[in-house]
Amino acid sequence: MERKLVILGAQWGDEGKGKIVDLLSEGYDITVRYQGGSNAGHTVIANGEKFILHLLPTGILHPHVVGVIAQGMVVDLDVLDQELEGLKERGIDYEGRLLISDRAHLVMPYHKLLDRLFEKKGGIGTTLRGIGPAYMFKFGRKGIRLADLDDEKRFYSLIEENVAFVRDICEKVFCENHDLEVELIFERTLERYSKYKEFVTDVCQYLLKTEKTLLFEGAQGTMLDVDIGTYPYVTSSNSSALGLSNGTGLSPKFFSDAYLIGVAKAYTTRVGGGPFPTELKNEEGDKLRDIGGEYGSTTGRPRRCGWLDLVALKYAVELNHFDGLILTKLDVLDSFDEVRVCVAYEYEGDRIETFPASLKVLESAKPVYKTLKGWKRDTKGAKDIKDLPAQAIEYIRFIEDFTGVPVIMLSTGPKREEFIWLKELPQIKVSSL
């Protein structure tokens, strides 16, 4: 039976999806990245080595898995080159196991320049990797796709046109000059493209025709989705299930038999600006950050930390129609006497139980907490539910009851083997279970 699994972030990103996809892709033939770009940072510890993947699907670390970069991604060829060279240096052979959509758009040097200028003017805390401007050019019909590089004359004229456009923005809007050289960008891009041209293909047709098992790997998280997240403090793509069809070029009917899993931390974090109702700007927040090692894998920036926001999590569960949740970093809460979860917001005397669109409401909303007893026992590395204290199980059950979906797995540490399977499902195969 054909199997399709979708792994999505259920919060503001950084939920630990890399480890989960690495673990679960062992039981799949193909893993697909379909949105975002090198602003993602999926961290995996495999065989004692640490990998941080920005563009490549995490499943590429398994020797039998084909990694697919689909059309919804924006591809920085310099980053792709660095990642592939890094795999080669570690003895991981990707030949014949990587496919890149010819419809995927490129991140160009002028996108990174614009990203820095926009952020300098009053930004939202982006990764400065040019992702937003690349999508801006895509939807403004000024983007460059991988397919365009085969027509060198047209490719050169596109760069020339875009550099002139960016020059006007730099000089007339920001009163700054730039050092972009059309010839240099043209030659460097073609040099990178020539190294990986053999991997570029019609990914949509490949996915439509394959009879192999498929795992779709989302980047960022639902609350950063450009349409349903905390706009404008979001990423530039659909990082929820909304991105599946436009990111792959496949009909929604293609995913009708897919199993959708949301990955969430046992608490909440986010990077950059934007509303964060449960943020802890105190010793408890510092403790979560220090124990959890909450620093961005892409930027190194310290993450903002707070208690688990169940209002936001339930919103993600409902909009993505998750079949289940995977909970990560439960062990970070091991030393707390009490743990709190947000079950509603209070705004101007009113109780709000659904996640609001209004930025004004979110920025002023006060969390309504339910306090649960801490377990004060080490759960790190636990591999059986019998190893969990009763209070930790009570915490998990409360999350299940509130969101309406089961927690099917716990990640109890960064290593592949550190997890507990709480609900075995026929859609998911992990040979190491």
From TrEMBL:
Gene Ontology MF term list: adenylosuccinate synthase activity; GTP binding; magnesium ion binding
Known function: Plays an important role in the de novo pathway of purine nucleotide biosynthesis. Catalyzes the first committed step in the biosynthesis of AMP from IMP.
Annotated localization: Cytoplasm
Keywords tagged on the record: Cytoplasm, GTP-binding, Ligase, Magnesium, Metal-binding, Nucleotide-binding, Purine biosynthesis
This protein's record includes keyword Metal-binding: yes
Catalytic activity: IMP + L-aspartate + GTP = N(6)-(1,2-dicarboxyethyl)-AMP + GDP + phosphate + 2 H(+)
Cofactor (UniProt): Mg(2+)
Family: Belongs to the adenylosuccinate synthetase family.
Record-listed GTP binding positions: 13-19, 41-43, 303, 329-331, 411-413
Lineage of origin: Bacteria, Pseudomonadati, Aquificota, Aquificia, Aquificales
Protein name as catalogued: Adenylosuccinate synthetase
Quaternary structure, from the entry: Homodimer.
